[in-house]
Design a protein that fits this description.
It comes from Legionella quinlivanii. By secondary structure, this protein is α/β, with parallel strands linked by helices. Helix content is 23%, strand content 18%. It contains eight helices and 14 strands. α1 runs antiparallel to α2 and α7 packs across α8.
Amino acid sequence: MEVILKILWLVIICLLSGCQTGFYKGPPSDHFDGKTFYNPDEKGKKRNGNYDLVNLWISVLQNQWPASLPEISYPLLPANYPDGAMVTFINHSTVLIQSKKINILIDPIYSYRASPFQWIGPARHREPGLSFDRLPTVDLVLISHNHYDHMDLGTIKKLQQKYHPQFIVPLGNKVFLERNGVKQVTELDWWQSVNVKETKISLLPAHHDSQRWLYDLNKTLWGSFGVEISGRKIYFAGDTGYFGHFKEIRKKWGTPQLAFLPIGAYEPRSLAKPYHLNPSDAVRAHLDLGSHRSIGIHWGTFQLGAEDFNQPVNDLALARKKYGLTEKQFFVIREGLPFYIDK
C-alpha cells in the first residue's frame, strides 16, 4: 500500500490542474518578459519544472524521515532586548513578528500537509510551536511565493475568516487570493514598498521560482521581505538560492539586525542548488547581508529534500566553523519561543 501511495503521489505531481494562482499582465522588466517571470541570470533559459519536481520526489522517497522526529538540542539564545520588536519562529518558514502596533505573520502554514490535498503529499513531522488558536490578532500577512509550503490556502482561509488581515504578495498572486475570499491584497514588485501601521514592508529579490500546477511555472513572482519595525530591520529570505542579490539588498535596503535564512531542502544538490540555500550558502548570505544575527528556518518540519532531518543543523555548525561565526551569530531557535531583537 505504501508503494502504491508513493507512485500515486508522483502521478499527481504530473497531473495537477485547477490549482494555478493566475497569470500576471504587466510591462516587461529585468525579471519579467511580459508573460513569465525569471531570475535575471536565467533569462532565456528553458526549464522543465515538472521533470525536476518528479526527480526531486524520487530522491526524497528514497530517504524518508522517521514519522516521529526526536527532540533537538537547541543552543542558549543571545541576550533578549524586550523594548522593541519581537519574533517567534513557529516552524518551517512561518514567522511571527510583533511590535506594540502590529502583528505580522509570514508564510503561514498550519495544514498537516504542504500539498494541494490533505490525504497525500509532504506531511508535517513537527507541530507548530504556536498553535493557531494562540495567535495574537493578525494585522498583516506576508507571502513570499506560491509554493504549497509557503502559500497554504487552508491557513489563509482561516486567517481571513478570523482576523481579516491585509495580505502583501509578489506580482501575480493577488487574483488567486481574491478568488479564494481574501479582501485586502497588495501586490508588490521587487524593490517596491508599502507602509502599514508605521511599519515599512519591502519586497526584495530572491533567486527562486513559482508553480502550483502543470502549466503555471514562473507565471507569478517570488521574493524576500524587508520589514522595518520599531527602529529595527528584519530580513526574511523566503526560498532562495545563493546569488548576488544578498549584496545588492545590503547596498540598497541596508543591513538587518536579524535575518531569517532557509537552511533545509537542499539535497540533491544537482537539483536544489539554484533555488535553495544549503547551510554553507546561508552563512555566506548572512555575511553578504552583514546581518547582526540570523536564524535558520525551512528545516525539520516537512521533508522537501533528500537530506536527513537533522543534517541542516549539523551542516550549519560546520559552516559556522568554516566561516568563523559563533553560535550567537547564526543559530536555530526552538519553535514557539519569543525572541526580542536588539538594535
